[in-house]
Amino acid sequence: MHIKIMGPGCQNCQKVADLVQASVDESGVNAQIEKVTDFQEMAKAGVLSTPAVVIDGAVKCVGKVPSKEEILSWLK
To answer: Is 10 labeled as catalytic in the residue annotation?
Structure first.
């Protein structure tokens, strides 16, 4: 599983990164987590608002900090 956290590195982006890492650890899923700060790459993925979470190419969340429960549901 490949998870991308998209955003410039703001406080909310860091919250999302921490939540995703905690969720991956809790679920035991084998996942590679990547932080994407390049706005051109975000636009190519269709992300125009940050923070965003993209899992295996599918945009799961844009413009908000998701709950840990939401993230865990995406990892199943």
So the answer is: yes
